[in-house]
Write a sequence for this structure.
């Protein structure tokens, strides 16, 4: 098991512990999830199902379209999607479900299913790690550490996001580095579609690496558990014990990267199931 695999294991335990201490009602939602509530479609790239597995969320993989009963569907990054799937899932969302996608799904799926919302600006990123600035009331807002921005790994050739309808689309997070390098600062977006909701993020939920640009990022993962997750001392000890690691097994940046995407996946599941999202202005 490499460092990032360990980081995701720890991050899932930490997210559950954070919910237990700060939002027990959200943990109750996660614990009530049944097989069939969450579905995932495999892609050529990304593996959001691995994060869901770490969170102990039961998942139906590649369900037959007419048999889907999930409240939230994750569509992994891929280079192509069948037209029937695009059309069927568009209508599924319109009728009140949630759809979450990553990277190449932007142009190959989202732009086709939900026209005139967001699209690919035809700029490709490099294989790099960028710092992210979440919106103040984003799904990440409770795990942001001032002075140590979240790190997000970009796959080589990630598709930069262009917002086509700023009145309908909400920008969830941006990156100054993306703005400077690709004139496309958007990291994540969301929008309503009919009675449902769509969330898209650049690159992958499963990050393959992180970076440590500052002394704080190079410090112990327990600093992020305290400053980022805001866990109690007892909670930090429980996370380390349940994960079977020492405090120096991971650094701040590694856990921060894994926890950022894990927190997002967990929050999306909770909000989709409980339907507690704030509608985007039309």
């Amino acid at each position: 098991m490499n460092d990032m695999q360990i980081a995701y294991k720890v991050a899932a335990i930490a997210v559950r512990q954070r919910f237990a201490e700060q939002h027990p009602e959200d943990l109750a939602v996660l614990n009530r999830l049944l097989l069939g509530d969450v579905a995932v479609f495999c892609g050529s790239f990304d593996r959001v199902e691995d994060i869901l597995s770490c969170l102990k969320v039961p998942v139906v993989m590649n369900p037959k379209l007419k048999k889907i009963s999930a409240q939230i569907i994750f569509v992994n990054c891929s280079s192509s999607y069948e037209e029937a799937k695009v059309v069927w899932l568009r209508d599924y969302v319109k009728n009140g479900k949630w759809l979450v996608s990553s990277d190449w799904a932007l142009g190959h799926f989202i732009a086709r299913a939900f026209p005139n919302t967001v699209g690919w600006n035809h700029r490709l990123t490099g294989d790099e790690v960028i710092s992210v600035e979440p919106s103040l009331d984003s799904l990440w807002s409770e795990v942001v550490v001032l002075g140590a921005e979240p790190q997000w790994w970009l796959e080589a050739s990630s598709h930069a996001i262009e917002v086509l309808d700023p009145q309908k689309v909400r920008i969830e997070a941006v990156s100054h580095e993306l703005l400077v390098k690709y004139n496309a600062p958007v990291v994540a977006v969301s929008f309503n579609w009919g009675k449902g909701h769509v969330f898209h993020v650049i690159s992958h939920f499963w990050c393959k690496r992180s970076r440590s640009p500052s002394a704080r990022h190079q410090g112990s993962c327990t600093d992020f558990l305290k400053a980022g997750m805001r866990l109690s001392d007892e909670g930090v000890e429980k996370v380390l014990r349940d994960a079977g690691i020492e405090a120096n097994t991971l650094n701040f940046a590694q856990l921060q990267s894994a926890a950022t995407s894990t927190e997002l996946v967990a929050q999306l599941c909770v909000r989709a199931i409980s339907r507690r999202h704030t509608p985007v202005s039309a």
Notes: The longest helix spans residues 252-274. Residues 120 and 157 are 12 Å apart (CA to CA). The first strand starts at residue 38 and ends at 41.
